[in-house]
Amino acid sequence: MKIPHPIQYQGSKRNLAATILEYFPANVQTVIEPFAGTAAISVATAYQKKANRFLINDLNKPLLDLLQLIIETPEEIANAYEKLWHEQQLDSIGHYFSVRDEFNCSGDSRLFLYLLARCAKGAVRYNNAGYMNQSPDKRRKGTLPATMRKNIQGVSALLKGKCEFSSLDYKVVLKQVVNTDLVYMDPPYQGVCGDKDSRYYAGIHHGEFIESLAELNAQGISYLVSYDGKTGNKNYGEKLPNTLNLTCVEINAGRSSQATLLGRQEITFESLYISPALAKRLLQPHVKKAREVMVTESCYA
Ligand SMILES: C[S@@+](CC[C@H](N)C(=O)[O-])C[C@H]1O[C@@H](n2cnc3c(N)ncnc32)[C@H](O)[C@@H]1O
Fold this sequence. Notes:
Layout: H1 17-21, E1 30-33, H2 40-47, E2 53-57, H3 61-72, H4 74-87, H5 92-106, H6 109-118, H7 145-159, E3 163-166, H8 170-174, E4 181-185, H9 206-218, E5 222-231, E6 234-236, E7 247-255, H10 257-261, E8 267-274, H11 276-282, H12 293-296
Parallel strand pairs: 1-2, 1-4, 2-3, 4-5
Antiparallel strand pairs: 5-6, 5-8, 7-8
The chain binds S-adenosylmethionine (SAM).
């Protein structure tokens, strides 16, 4: 079975999930995703049966509501998508813009699924006022309803009845974390001062995020953070500081499509940071799988 994925979303960790899950310890009770996006890591965790409880949070409320509908009421959201998809046939572009207007007024996540499937480059965009402003894809009409239904049913089969949902700022979520949890954090790529990034509904402040990680360290919490990255000589995002005492591994995220377009064969590497408490759990003698990469590769070099 292929891992199902109904939602296209920039920054989705769908393709890196298997590698990230290599750094999950045994005996995780609850996986917490404060920046869930499409919850690709929770879906893959359930698929690999590495945990049974999930806390899925994202500040983007329509996105979070959409995840909840997909997981808890799959037939309802699949039917809504099918209806909207068929309605576009006569004037697909005009239909997209009217659904987008309606979504920007109501925040209705059923409309959001259609927009995510139908928007240009499969990449949602927001203006400064927080309204979705991406144009439609002029050539494609969006995932076929039958394919969408299959993916929705697949995600629901993996996660139904196992999740708690919230749409809070990540700092509020981190206050609830206990030692038996595993927190996976994938915040938007950041500059130093929380600049608005049009790809996401909200952003975070780098300094505040570091303070939150220091607090988690003080409590001995196991966590993983996907943060910065690089393609060739170009770095993206601020690195997390040495003072946090994190183990950093570079994950090969494959060929950069941007660089390929420009005729360069550059690979993108994304940093995955491992908290001190988690690194200790992973290096216990009873952990069978070798994780040499933890000591041989370092993004601090
Ligand atoms: C890089 S995406 C996560 C992608 C996700 N790992 C996936 O596989 O789809 C970052 C997410 O963080 C959310 N976000 C931004 N600021 C936030 C905040 N302060 N608290 C909680 N979520 C936030 C955004 O809405 C966005 O969905």
